[in-house]
Amino acid sequence: MPAAVEVQAEATPVITSTTAISTTVTGRQITELPLPTREALDLAFQMAGASGGGGVRYSSFDGLPHGALNLTIDGINIQDNLLKSASGGSFYAYIRPRIDAVDEVTVSSAGNAANTGEGAVQIAFVTKRGTNAWHGGGFWYLRNNALNANTWFNNTNGLPRQILKLNQFGSRIGGPIRKNKLFLFFVWDDFRLPNAIARNRTVLKPGAIAGDFTYKGTDGANHTVNVLQMAGANGFRSTPDANITTLLKKIHSLRSGGQVGITSLDLFRDTMSFNNLGKQRRYFPTTRLDYAITDKMQLDGEWYYQGFRSFPDTLNSCDRTYPGFEMLNGKPAEGGQNSNRHQSPMAFRWTMTPRMTNEFRVGENGGTVVFAGGMDQTLYPNNTRLGFPLSLTSPLSLPRDSRRNSPISTISDTLAWQKGKHTLNYGFTFTRLSNWDRSIGTAVPLASTGITSNDPINSLFSATSPARCPTTEPFRRWSRFRPPSLSRCR
After folding, report:
1. Distance between alpha carbon 438 and the CA centroid of its chain, in Å?
2. Do 210 and 274 belong to one domain?
3. What is the CATH number of the domain that holds 123?
């Protein structure tokens, strides 16, 4: 029996009710799209007009400035407005929309109505709601380093695979508390990530710690002189600082511990490589209540509470500088990033007539983010941080405690009136942006080590000293080689 193929063609309708250029993703499309994360914001990055580099956070739309983007959940802006106009700020959501909590996401890139709020490009998320039937579900996503190969660089340095044990799990439920009247939706989303990050530190070669300076001479051969002995022979101090020498020897002792890999950087420096362990935990409970006061009046409220825990904070380099340096002077030398973020939108809708509706909305969000939390800022000797020269990694120059909060409060009202073939919108929006921050900054001063241009010890370094040192730049080479054991504090 021959098969029949039927082809139908339909004309795409011309939308005349709005001039906005927008795309909306709803329902199962959101949960079934193959995204690498459970961030609903990644959905917007898949749409036309999005461009970026270095991750979603650094993206933009239609080539517009970062500040032209407006991200909202249930009508309330969710961006960190302290960073909104900066690189990496426009797509940085302070309140994270999660896939299982979102019912739809709309991206409007042109022709937006006046009631959409500030921003040439609008990315609007709507929270899921309960219905007259109970529904629920659960999920568990797993990534484990046991399933991964090691990196080429770790193999080269003799280091094991970095730990990666990502678990994302949660559940959701929605339904009627009272049919046709009161509805509930709740989701719990949990993110747990014990991991490791590869760190590379610049350290002195063993001989350089004792004062040996090795250079390539004009004869093409390597030569070594001891700057401490040169200093002593010319009447200068030749005894290294005891505290700095202790630090350098402790770092040197790691070479034989089996925890690090060593590669040569130049004639007097090495690169020390190792893995630092970290742990992240984030949780995203979300609740929505809908109440049908009458057939013409509805009230809904949402509650987002998001906790972020990261220790040590490897993203902002608050992890240990070297293995065994988790404590200095008996005090913590690692810090975490912690924050408790919240958002509480509420809306009242009133269908006044079949052709006239009004929506009143109010909401707020905020929450303090703490950086380098738990790091004791009094761990430094004499309350002074110490910087090493020659790009050497100093264990006494760590991040300082800081914290910030950029809360938002919003009130808006929109009256929509359909008059014949036209729709008229009236209303207002009031948004209050605040910023609060605190940073220790220079309260802990930094001392740099090295040789200043007017230091008498510069007389040791000339065009003929040391022997066979290239005559074009002997002073520059010597002034750059400032072993901390010889340098003075400046």
Report:
1. 19
2. yes
3. 2.170.130.10
